[in-house]
Design brief:
Layout: E1 19-31, E2 36-47, E3 54-59, E4 63-69, E5 72-73, E6 76-78, E7 87-92, E8 102-110, E9 118-121, E10 133-136, E11 157-165, E12 169-171, E13 174-177, E14 195-205, E15 212-214, E16 218-221, E17 231-236, H1 241-248, H2 252-259, E18 270-275, E19 284-285, E20 290-293, H3 307-313, E21 322-323, H4 329-347, H5 350-370, H6 397-412, H7 416-430, E22 434-435, H8 437-451, H9 453-461, H10 465-470, H11 488-499, H12 520-531, H13 538-547, H14 556-566, H15 573-586, H16 599-612, H17 614-624, H18 630-639
Parallel strand pairs: 1-11, 17-18, 18-20, 21-22
Antiparallel strand pairs: 1-2, 2-8, 3-7, 4-5, 4-8, 6-7, 9-10, 10-15, 11-14, 12-15, 13-14, 16-17, 19-20
Amino acid sequence: MSAAVLPIDAASQSNWHDVVSEHVDFDWTLDFQTQTISGTATHTLRVNTPGVQQVVFDTQYLDVTKVIVEGRPGDFTLGKHHEVMGAPLSIRLPINRQAGDKVHLTVHYSTTHECAAVQWLDKQQTQGKTFPFMFSQCQPIYARSMAPLQDTASAKITYTAKVASVLPTLLSAIRVSPPSTGPAHDGKEIGKDAVVYEYKQPIPIPTYLIAIAAGNFRYRAFPKVEGKDWNIGIWAEPELIDAAYWEFSEDVGRFLSTAETILPPYRFGVYDVLVLPPSFPYGGMENACLTFLTPTLLVGDRTLVDVVVHELTHSWFGNGVTQANSTHFWLNEGWTTYMERVLLERLHTPADRGFSFLIGYNSLKQALKQYVNKPKYQRLVINFDEGEDPDDAYSTVPYEKGSNFILHLERTLGGLDVFLPYVYDYVHTFMGKSITTEQWKEHLYGYWSKHGGEEKIKALDGIKWDEWFYGEGLELPDEMEYDLSLATDAYALAAKWDAVRSEEVSKLSFSASDVEKFNANQKIVFLERLQSFPALPSSHINLLGEVYSLASSTNAELRWRFYEVALLDPASPSAKGYAAPAAKWVTGNDGTGILAGRMKFCRPTFRAIARANRELAVEVFNANKLAFHPIARRLIEKDLGLA
């Protein structure tokens, strides 16, 4: 697929259509004292437009000191800073270059304290409280604050990296040296002696998948899966490595093997997971070769490990077949969420697939309500204006609306068994490429024209394409039905609570046995069902939190949803009473010391607190905001009207 096929990326100022970066060699030094990454980025460029005079990279708050072009000092200018896109770095190229020519240039630079991609943690913010920690988050457009890049998903790169660090260092690539199976930090003193870590990423990836983490962590390999040539393992701080290994060791290999029964073979050679500190703003991030995970998944009963199914599925949808730009984000997340649930059916039961769609649909309803005043962000395909921040539209809409759309297509075209061969062909056709929604749709029609003829094309013609792609509002274009068999008991228990709202709490007969046979997802559905009813009286909320241990649960999925129930009516005594405990929990000041930094938890919790007591929400956030990742911090500030 030629670059000319793809549209301009509204969030990038780079000229990748004219001259594109194909490979980058990073040479970095991590400085934990100044909290900077410094060094060089050497680009191998391919000329697309004959006679192109300059290459333009995206940067954001980088300190660029020197440029070398084909071995000689080069001319460069750093343009005017844009709040979202950053400053374009323009570098003059050798004259008379023809299409297909290669150009090599090196940019000398350093990150600054305004770098949005990287969070530097002091030792008190780690599990061991002995060494500092740093990690990156480049999606959607933050890689430009870590390196000068053509920061668009349309331009994929391979890369190598040499990183000098006094702490063990990981990247989203295959480690070349020192071996991960050797002593931590190559046997040198952690925190004092620098070691040069070398990595290579031979598979072209979008720039948002460049990732780095450095800290006092250890590696433990997962059991080798017979007949598979990929390697799997886990990284975590020493204090967590045993618990993390236990939580994930039984399932990661099984998950990946099951995916390969439906999809083309896994391409990246290594699938490791890294458990990060609690300020990590997502449940997981699908960085190539190295999935980042929130520590909130370590609940000691393996009930939340299915999050890994979503992240590893990105190896095909996102990391393999990639959105052209943020307008088509649903191609990454909608497809991944859909296929995640297909795998849940294979790994568990068909009822688990339906149950996951049900939980997701409840999340979708909340997300759609959030954007009532910004209906553009209720769309599946969002045509962003130039310089518009794609993170402003970040929600579960592309995940859930997208996955429901594909489920609707599956049912329309004849069911799962008929649909899965198409899914394989789709991935096989576009693996390694970046595409638009229109290109996906064209392939969809082409496949079913060959494999179904007029009957299937007629079925596709009946799809409400514009309503699914561009429809706004709180409802899906088509009514969706799910297998609710696992929800029946949870719904019944919620109905019992609703039915006794007017009774004296001393007369109620609820007990822990009500939920002893519920799994974590059934408890989630129970709490979400309660939110669909009018707010319960404060006395009932207190009993609810006590009798099911929800007010003290270490499972963040349950704790957050309990606060959602308690804060449902902002004017109620319950909301006034639970605003403070929720604020302590979300900031890690409830005695656990564990920050609820995942944006799935912290953003809605702060919004709920603010509805009940805005002064408290603002005060608590301002006092603790530096503990949150820069991305989460910025979005919470917008949620609270502080930015």
